[in-house]
Amino acid sequence: MLVKLSEAAETVASTDEDIRGYHVKDRNGEDLGTVDDLLIDPDARKVRFLVIASGGFLGIGKDKSFLPVDAITGIDDDEVRIDQTREHVAGAPAYDPDLVYDNTYYGDVYGYYGFGPFWGYGYSYPPYPYYR
């Protein structure tokens, strides 16, 4: 079961590696929002998804979506770059707080982005910080 880092008894090993609050840019450099939280696998001690918040005013009415860490192509300063387009991310399976703990939902998100799920045969965790 995955949990939000903000709700877990875990922390990021180094504050330099905490990307919450970073801007997320698509492969064309367009802004998608900010990293609102990280979904972690407490057993494996790995981040599995970014929770991206976009829209809203003063934190009200923000839309949220999940993005597998596998989509990250680079991280620097205050920016996370991904290999997807803004339009593709907008069409992802809708965030539903009631489904946050459902492997079927996670599988749908992985499949939508073209990645195999972390529990699948042959899965290899992305080699941070050496993203594609």
TrEMBL record:
Q: Where is the signal peptide?
A: none
Q: Cross-referenced Pfam families, in alphabetical order?
A: PRC (PF05239)
SUPFAM superfamilies listed in its UniProt record: PRC-barrel domain (SSF50346)
Query: Domain PRC-barrel: where?
Result: 16-88
Q: Which InterPro entries match?
A: Bac_photo_RC_H_C (IPR014747), PRC-brl_dom (IPR027275), PRC_barrel-like_sf (IPR011033)
Q: Which domain of life is it from?
A: Bacteria
- Name of this chain's protein: PRC-barrel domain-containing protein
